[in-house]
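Before relying on records like the one below, remember that each one covers exactly one chain. Contacts with other chains, cofactors or solvent are not represented anywhere in the record.
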Amino acid sequence: MADVPVDRETVARAFGFLLMAERMADPVLIAVARSLDPHRSAPVLWQKVDYHGSVTSRHGSYWVCAIHAHADPFSEVPELRYDLCELRGIMAVAVRNVRRVSITPLSEYHRME
């Protein structure tokens, strides 16, 4: 399909979905998140959360678009950090490297189509 004109938003959305699929493909992170939280209250990918952390200008509701496990050389348990995003056309990350105590999971999940 060479030389077929495609607008920027369509291209950005296609690459955004590829990145989302790649992030969702790692079930190890979800397993780690669940093992660190025996009460099953830790958010998972594409769950909506309320952010109430130190960046007060960003307080509000977002989707969890990435989960990162950070190793601590003095602890056996890794610390999880979250990237939160808004879904408006193309995906935009709003807050990065968020601690668990700064978010409250909501019972809403984004459906991938």
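The chain has a mean pLDDT of 75.
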